[in-house]
Amino acid sequence: MSAAAPSWLLLIQERVALIQPALSAQNVHELALPFGHATLLAGEPPTPLQIEHAIERVEDAVMGARTHLGAGARLATRDAALHALARHAGVDAGGWLGIDAVEALFNRLAARAAGRPAAQDALPVDAPSAARLVILRELLHHGGLSGIQCRD
User: Cα(first)–Cα(last) distance of the chain, in Å?
Assistant: First the structure.
């Protein structure tokens, strides 16, 4: 029988995104990514070019995350701001926000950045919300994760 897949908690702070082990484990350390919701993007909404630069920055930092997280890793969050984004995908607290739903949210952000009026989409596009979405999207893609559990 194989060992259980590691479980991690994501917390996106002002200047750093933390990926912490959900349970205390020997020789398992948190991963601190060198950006946060207040340092990655500016503008409301950010421009498509700003989003592209943010993606590149996040990609560079999370490329090693897959190895750090381990095979079959599961990601969860108690971050209220991430829960708020999940609600825009129809996911309530305690629900699962899959990678396809995150990609759909990102496509909505990109459309707003390209000029879609706010009256057509209530997705928050302020810099902190957009930064959280970019961080989550890239972490899921490059961390080999299928989604994130929104824990109470």
Answer: 30
